[in-house]
Amino acid sequence: MEIDDFKSFIRTIPSIKDEVVKGRYTWQQLYEFYVLYGEDDKMWEPYKKSQVDLTGIFDIIKNVDLDALSKSFEGIQKVLDLVSGFVVKEEPKNVKNRQWYDD
Description:
Blueprint: H1 2-12, H2 16-22, H3 27-37, H4 45-62, H5 66-86
């Protein structure tokens, strides 16, 4: 059934829903376009590209080595601890105890 194929296709490009919500297209218009031109038409490319971008981001996240990332953060933390050890924190002097003249 073409309607089921259309629904399956639309699920692969969820960004098209925004166009319906904005009023640019209706579901009927999109269905008719799908029936007439198919899912390989240029009309769908902008929506597929945005989906590909998300897929690319997920692939990058999936390939991140969490152990290496954790070690990097530990190294950064050690450097920050070392630098903070060099910085001397002075207590603010109490203004009342200052002597501006000899007693």
